[in-house]
Amino acid sequence: MKWFVGVDIGGTTIKLAFVTLEGDIVTKWEIPTNKVDGGKHITSDIAKAIESKRVELGATNDALVAMGLGAPGFINMATGFIYHAVNIGWKNFALKDELEKETGLSVTVDNDANIAALGEMWRGAGDEAKNLLCVTLGTGVGGGIIVNGQILHGVNGMAGEIGHLTSITDESGASCNCGKTGCLETVASATGIARLAIEGLKKQPNSNLQTVFEREGTLTAKDVFDAAKEEDELAKSIIEDVCFHLGLALANLANALNPEIIVLGGGVSKAGDLLLNPLKEQFKRFALPRVEEGCKFKVATLGNDAGVIGGAWLAKQG
Amino acid sequence: MKWFVGVDIGGTTIKLAFVTLEGDIVTKWEIPTNKVDGGKHITSDIAKAIESKRVELGATNDALVAMGLGAPGFINMATGFIYHAVNIGWKNFALKDELEKETGLSVTVDNDANIAALGEMWRGAGDEAKNLLCVTLGTGVGGGIIVNGQILHGVNGMAGEIGHLTSITDESGASCNCGKTGCLETVASATGIARLAIEGLKKQPNSNLQTVFEREGTLTAKDVFDAAKEEDELAKSIIEDVCFHLGLALANLANALNPEIIVLGGGVSKAGDLLLNPLKEQFKRFALPRVEEGCKFKVATLGNDAGVIGGAWLAKQG
């Protein structure tokens, strides 16, 4: 019995798993994220959770080989030091050192979007391809870029911020949480798609989405895809628009990075072909022919397990 | 005496150099590119040129350690096999194997834009930074992306095609040699800038560029920068436009790659601050604050030597 420990720290829960050397989950579970006292109890919570799970499974002390962990916020990946993680409460927190002290395991830290990308590369849609673009279309738009099998960090850990490529440069671009306007995230996230729909109703109040909006008081990205399935014109034009911006951004990145696979994850990716077909069309329009030929689109397959499996991959690399 | 051999094959001349283990050029020279018989004499030309130079310098047989070489066209970097190099004449040519046979040296092959980027990283403007974006603004727009000290190839050798990011998506985009329209290259290359100026004269015939155009029968990018220096409105608006598109493309790439340095080379980069100042302004507008803070712009310093020095770097890596 030799297992890696994969950990994925979120603002509400911490996901944990014991993972075999080949990347199969032995067991997975969650604990709440304890944010009191600036998050300083989190490391001992994780250590206790791991220890009691190990005992529960009857595994020996040396069954656990190493730990890989993803966390949100600004992280120094080399030292595992967290400068700031707003939705946890950490500020200047030596996460790696603390965890190593508490668990006795060697710990590798990266950000949450990156370990999800590594998980998909290793055991998900990435299919062990070594040049991979992972894009999460959720509340925001997150990204992880894998080059030669390694996650890209860049000079100060900011690499992979695909959601903040600028899609709309004129004054019509919506404000983004990052402080800029017109970011891809303002258009291609679930939030962005819902916003476009609500704005679109002003001009096309005869859309079926109007009924949903009046009933629910709001709209979701899923409402838009559902309406598009029924040939609603407004919904179809919004998806067209989203795929134009997303396809252009991904083609531009692909012309630079020449990835083998683009993995789409997050809630919006569940729309499947309703998203993928128009997206591939726009991608083909803007990518160089050889780049387009070399690149497949896939929907993420690991769901919420991507992070803990990617954490195990990190642990494997040491 | 231990030297690397750096070779940079172009459509007209082949540049060669003996380079110390530290990257200093011992001697450099050129030979013509012999394109007869589909370029099949080039490898023996290179071998003879190296051998006679070695003898001329009185160096022993084992002074030459290894060779690194850049060539244009579609290359399999792992095997040094050239699928097709239009302006040389090679088709399915085993460049690395042939050269190793002819010279007895171990040979590493990459494309010409990439070895120039490696040269700038090692001994030029890149200053040994390990995360680097190199952009050559010449007749076309070329690129080389260096990540963790390694040149990015992507899944089929197409990585770094920065000139083919799409800048103009509507029907106003000019045709590009790649078959697409509106590529960055159609705007930010020397050719693109000249085209914008000639088109601009139709609407602003009172520009000083009109006089130059009538005298010379054409315009160059240098004419545009010269006129901008004298506050010509058309010239200034073209540079504004070029910097908007180039700044947006580079900021989008930087949000994904988080480079430490962006090196600008090629004829257009000689405009210096006239280009750099408006470019940095647009870059700042579209890059995430931490990405912009982490990134410096520099003008390439090695000129035509970048390729042979980058070749030597390749040889050093083996």
Care to describe what's here?
Two copies of one chain form a homodimer. With 318 residues, the first copy, chain A, is an alpha/beta fold. The first copy, chain A, is built from twelve helices and 13 strands. Chain A folds into two domains: 3-120 and 305-317, 2-Layer Sandwich (Nucleotidyltransferase, domain 5), CATH 3.30.420; 128-300, ATPase, nucleotide binding domain (Nucleotidyltransferase, domain 5, 2-Layer Sandwich), CATH 3.30.420. Helices cover 41% and strands 23% of the residues of chain A. In chain A, the strands form three sheets. The first copy, chain A, has a five-stranded mixed sheet. A five-stranded mixed sheet of chain A has the order 11-10-9-12-13, covered by helices on one side. Chain A has a three-stranded antiparallel sheet with strand order 5-6-7, covered by helices on one side. In chain A, strand 5 and strand 6 (81-85) form a beta hairpin. The two termini of chain A are 19 Å apart. Chains A and B meet through strand 10, helix 9 and helix 11 of A and strand 10, helix 9 and helix 11 of B.
CATH architecture tag of the largest domain in chain A = 2-Layer Sandwich
Quickly give the structural class of chain A: alpha/beta
Q: What's the rounded overall pLDDT mean of chain A? A: 95
Oligomer: homodimer
Count of distinct strands of chain A: 13
Order of helices and strands of chain A: EEEHHEEEEHEHEEEHHHHHEHHEH
Share of helix among residues of chain A?
Answer: 40-55%
Give the end-to-end Cα distance of chain A, rounded to a whole number of Å. Answer: 19 Å
| CATH C-level label of the largest domain in chain A | Alpha Beta
Low-pLDDT stretches of chain A are: none
Gross morphology of chain A is globular
The DSSP helix count of chain A reads: 12
Biggest sheet architecture of chain A: 5 strands, mixed
> Using CB atoms under 8 Å apart, which protein chain pair has the greatest interface?
A-B, 46 and 46 residues
Q: If strands are numbered along the chain, what order do they take across the biggest sheet of chain A?
A: 3-2-1-4-8
